Amino acid sequence: MGIVDALNSNVKAEPVYQDLNGDEVVGFGQRVDSMFTKVDKLEQTLNKVEQFYSTSSKKQLTTSKGSSILASYRKRQQNASHRESVAAKRMQELMRQFGTIIKQITQHKWAGPFMQPVDVVGLDLHDYYEVIEKPMDFSTIKNKMESKDGNGYKSVREIYADVRLIFKNAMKYNDERDDVHVMAKTLLGKVDEKWLQLLPKVDEEEKIQKEEEADAQMDMQLAQNATHAKIVKDLSIEIEEVDRNLEELRNRVLQKCRRMSTEEKKKLSAALTSLSPEDLDKALLIVSHDYPSFHATSQEVDLDIDSLSESTLWKLKFFVKGALQFQGRSPASMGGNNQQNNKRKIYDALAMSSQKRNKK
Predict the structure, then answer these.
(1) 67-76, 196-205, 228-237 — which one is most confidently predicted on average?
(2) Taking the CA atoms of the chain, what radius of gyration do you get in angstroms?
(3) How many percent of the chain have pLDDT more than 90?
(4) How far apart are CA 219 and CA 111, in angstroms?
(5) pLDDT at residue number 21
(6) I want to staple 18 with a disulfide (CB 3.0 to 4.6 A). Which of 106, 120, 152, 258 is the partner?
(7) What's the confidence (pLDDT) of residue 310?
(8) What does 286-316 look like in DSSP terms, one character per residue?
(9) Residue 38 DSSP class
(10) Is 243 helix (H, G, I), strand (E, B) or coil?
(11) Residue 171: pLDDT above 90?
(12) Would you give the DSSP letter of residue 258?
């Protein structure tokens, strides 16, 4: 039986509490409703954190490392913009050098047919677009190299690939005995020869880029780790606060409980035998909290109901009724009722808080 259920029964059925007015009932109910909402939010946060650590390579990260990780990340971020600026300048220099190669090729006496897009209509090349999937020419490359709208080339390899495509298209569409085919093949050889001279610099730049990308990934991982380390720390504090509030509320409610009748004690004894082994262990922990000498085990129980205090009896009654209600629900209905799941967390917290005090 949850605290809200107990308060409702005070109004609608048999009196559970003594000297408890309507305002107090509403106040207790509002506090419990607030706790249900908070527990649900904490569970959502906990699920996100668990999901992060289940997929992260830094699963062993602890909250104590959070500040040092965050400091490391901030230090690395200070140099990130500088690294990006330097990398962009290096790539621009490579593009400039390859631009010089393009200029040399376009000044060749055979470059004329490749300077502008193929005049498909004027030359009556009715099957051109069936043969050539991606037309290319030097004017298109020039425009893309000079583009300022973000659609330009990102690397020198992209430019090289398009230059080769110009000549590959010409060789593919024209017969190998055709002049255009021969001219394209000759110029392609010259481009490849020049490219091999530039290639060591391109390889070195790509190696540097891969290393910097790995650093960027590490920066992102550090940031995520630091963020989740802080979340874990805050979550721990909030869970402890919920536990304290629960204990305080429980004690206030139990102080208002009336004496339990003999019939109610009999029903409570019978209900205890209906609990699952797990729930019975939790119920016995409640008793052992109030009676440290009591040996809490579900294998063999010797519990004298009449010897228990009123507060212990009501703790057991609240827990047992709630546990039995929870056991009686089907998995499908449980999944669709967050308030019932939250109540279950409250019942479990009741036993867990008792267990903590026993260990102390």
Answers:
(1) 196-205
(2) 38
(3) 30
(4) 47
(5) 55
(6) 258
(7) 83
(8) HHHHH-TTS---SSS----GGGS-HHHHHHH
(9) H
(10) helix
(11) yes
(12) -
Q: For residue 322, which of 46, 32, 31, 45 has the smallest C-alpha distance?
A: 32
Rounded to whole angstroms, the Cα distance separating 202 from 91 reads 9
Q: Distance (Å, rounded) from C-alpha 79 to C-alpha 224?
A: 19
Distance CA 211, CA 325 (A): 58
Angle between helices 156-173 and 66-106 in degrees, nearest 10: 40
Task: Give CA–CA dist 314/260, Å, rounded.
Answer: 8
pLDDT of residue 297: 55
How far is residue 288's CA from residue 312's CA, in Å, rounded to a whole number?
10
Contacts of 103 (CB under 8 A, 6+ apart): none
In 3D, which of 331, 265, 225, 209 has the Cα closest to residue 340?
331
Average pLDDT across the chain, whole number: 77
* Nearest CA among 133, 156, 131, 132 for reference residue 145: 156
d(CA 201, CA 208): 11
Helix (H) or strand (E) holding 221, with range, is: helix 179-255
Flag the least confident range among 86-95, 230-239, 348-357. 348-357
Cα 158 to chain centroid distance, Å, stands at 35
- Distance, in Å, from the CA atom of 221 to the CA atom of 73, rounded to the nearest integer, reads 9
Sign of the CA dihedral running 285, 289, 293, 294: negative
205-245: per-residue pLDDT in tens? 989 888 888 877 777 777 777 777 788 888 888 888 887 87
pLDDT digits (tens, 9 = 90+) for 261-293: 889 888 888 888 888 888 888 888 888 888 877
